[in-house]
Specification:
CATH architecture of the largest domain: 3-Layer(bba) Sandwich
Largest sheet: 7 strands, mixed
Shape: globular
CATH topology of the largest domain: FAD/NAD(P)-binding domain
Bound molecules: flavin-adenine dinucleotide
Strand content: 15-25%
Oligomer: single chain
Number of helices: 15
Distance between the termini: 63 Å
Number of strands: 29
CATH class of the largest domain: Alpha Beta
Length: about 550
């Protein structure tokens, strides 16, 4: 029996600017284009257009009647798509499984366009791309704002597994609702709809399926986000890492007609995705949140047909007879006729007792809203004197009573941009500890105190804090390459003439394999340069693909 959905529901009637983008009225020309590429159908009330967990589903224009988008857990209407609007969401372009269902609310007439046809139209017709891509991206934002998407994450604020899931969902723009175990009423209500374990972290998806303490990978798999390449046929380009460099490479390659798969270990956006505000990227005079920039890049890449899969880590690279194989951490292999290594750097860890124990429990490597909560009205401690540490200090000082910056040098001027240095020096809520280092971490289940030592006087000072941010330089992610490409003495990938006398630009010592962004020896370690390199390398990839494009024997 159909659930009663007659109570007040959200509709595709725009009320805000975001909703205006999310629920566009299609003009006659676009409707005609859809009609030519699709099929007109009548639906009876209750007919299912698609249900939760479907891998392929059609793009649908509603000509008459309306379609209800349902959260299947309680058959609750999330939004009603009225006549004149379309049914679809960003996941359709990403190749993600459905996480909500679409059901005709009344007798309705629709134009149904198969998903592959829609993707082709989006990649080739700017008119439809403008409307559909903007609408889909805005709908994903609305779902995030509404905390709707059929996914409920459950756990305690301090539970490492729950926090990892939350971070993954937030950084990957997966719409979700958070239920804290301390909220008895919400837990009881949720437990009435599914088989919720009595404690610990859990994820409830789709038709009330419960995953107990899942990893981000397991969650991604269950949501159909973890696109495993089913075909053995090589992509034109395989991109490892989807930070700014990998995203730019994906956008440029896909927009120039190459088939692209980008493999990302953690979350789309890379280091830039963790930056609270990037102020020196061209075109954003007021700065842009790293997560926002990453989201835009991701939408742009999928618009052109690039495939992005996350979280999946490349663990091995090997040439085959006519392409390269990259093995992933679950044993699957993906293939590319060219490979772009864009897998950046990661923050150095400090040689401190109990560091690992406190990671995620008071020790962090990024300063986003998620971590900033732990500094509210307390102290935040940051180790490092580079731009990322400076940005973190500016950001955290909005939350913390006092933000301590601990640096080994005598001052910031040699390591930080001057605009940040002067802001930090003039901010009374930020205290700079020069020529100092952290020597001890204390706490029970989570960090509660750090001890700083002055390198000259050896004097020690303890600070009570729930949040230590380590931003003390970065090391390249090149261990997994197993000698396939030449590295410099610090482990960064050599390219161009540094790699071999006759090579240009971003070519590595292994022909057909390119390196861009922070992972490249001599790179500038900036968003703009990573984006620039990721864009420019595609012309060399074209040249490689047009030549013999056979990996070295
Ligand atoms: C907090 C912070 C603030 C910053 N602020 C600024 C700023 O204001 N302005 C500026 O210009 N720059 C800034 N930077 C630097 C800038 O973000 C980097 O230079 C830029 O992100 C480099 O891009 P990338 O794509 O080369 O590498 P990354 O951003 O490091 O991306 C690499 C990606 O590869 C993935 N990866 C790693 N290994 C593997 C593997 N084996 N398999 C699959 N995937 C893998 C990683 O998970 C990551 O997502 C900041 C950095 C940080 C951390």
């Amino acid at each position: 029996m159909m659930a009663d959905r007659s109570t007040q529901v959200r509709t595709s009637q725009p009320k805000s600017a975001l909703e205006q983008t999310a629920w566009p009225r299609l003009d006659d020309g676009l409707i005609e284009l859809l009609r030519r590429n699709g099929q007109t159908r009548w639906l009876d009330a209750g007919d299912v257009l698609f249900d939760v967990g479907e891998e392929t589903y059609d793009f649908t224009y509603v000509e008459q009647g309306h379609i209800d988008i349902l959260d299947r857990a309680q058959d609750r209407t999330v939004v009603r798509i009225q006549a004149g609007n379309v049914v679809g969401e960003l996941g359709m372009l990403k190749g993600q499984k459905t996480f909500l269902a679409a059901i005709a609310g009344v007798t309705s007439r629709v134009i149904v366009v198969p998903q592959p046809v829609l993707r082709e139209l989006v990649a080739t017709s700017p008119e439809i791309a403008d409307v559909v891509v903007s609408a889909f991206a805005a709908r994903r934002r609305l779902l995030m704002e509404w905390n709707e998407g059929g996914l409920v994450l459950v756990g305690e604020e301090n539970d490492r597994t729950a926090l990892r899931l939350l971070e993954f969902a937030r950084r990957s723009n997966i719409p979700h609702r958070w239920v804290d175990r301390s909220d008895d009423e919400a837990v009881v209500k949720l437990a009435a709809t599914c088989d919720l374990p009595a404690d610990g972290a859990a994820a409830v998806i789709g038709n009330s399926r419960v995953l107990t303490s899942p990893t981000p990978r397991e969650l991604a798999e269950a949501l159909g986000l973890d696109l495993v390449a089913t075909s053995n046929a090589p992509f034109d380009v395989l991109v490892v890492g989807a930070g700014p460099a990998g995203l730019a490479a994906s956008v440029y390659a896909a927009s120039e007609g190459l088939s692209v798969l980008a493999v990302e270990d953690t979350a789309i956006g890379g280091q830039a995705g963790t930056s609270s505000r990037i102020e020196n990227y061209l075109g954003f005079p007021r700065g842009v949140a790293g997560a926002e920039l990453a989201y835009r890049g991701e939408v742009q890449a999928v618009k052109f047909g690039a495939r992005l899969t996350s979280p999946r880590r490349a663990v091995h690279l090997a040439p085959e007879s006519d392409c390269f194989a990259v093995r992933l951490d679950d044993g699957h292999a993906v293939r590319g006729r060219a490979v772009i290594l864009a897998n950046g750097v990661q923050y150095r860890r400090l040689p401190l007792d109990r560091l690992e124990e406190f990671e995620g429990q008071g020790v962090y490597y990024a300063a986003t809203e998620l971590e900033a909560r732990f500094c509210r009205n307390g102290a935040a401690v940051i180790v490092g004197g580079g731009n990322s540490a400076g940005q973190a200090a500016m950001y955290l000082s909005r939350y913390a009573e006092c933000t301590h910056m601990v640096i080994r040098g005598e001052g910031l001027s040699r390591t930080m941009s001057s605009y940040l240095t002067s802001r930090i020096e003039s901010d009374s809520r930020i205290k700079l500890w020069t020529e100092s280092e952290i020597v001890r971490l204390n706490g029970d289940d989570r960090l509660s105190r750090v001890t700083i030592r002055h390198r000259g006087t050896q004097g020690e000072h303890a600070i009570d804090t729930r949040a230590l941010f380590i931003m003390a330089g970065a090391a390249p992610n090149t261990d997994w390459l197993g000698g396939q490409v030449r590295l410099d003495d610090k482990g960064f990938i050599l390219t161009g003439r540094d790699a071999a006398g006759d090579l240009d630009g971003f070519a590595t010592s292994c022909r057909g394999v390119f390196a861009v962004g922070d992972i490249r020896a001599g790179s500038v370690k900036r968003v703009a340069s990573a984006v620039g390199e990721g864009s420019v390398v595609i012309s060399a990839v074209h040249a490689w693909l047009q030549r013999d494009s056979r990996p070295p024997a």
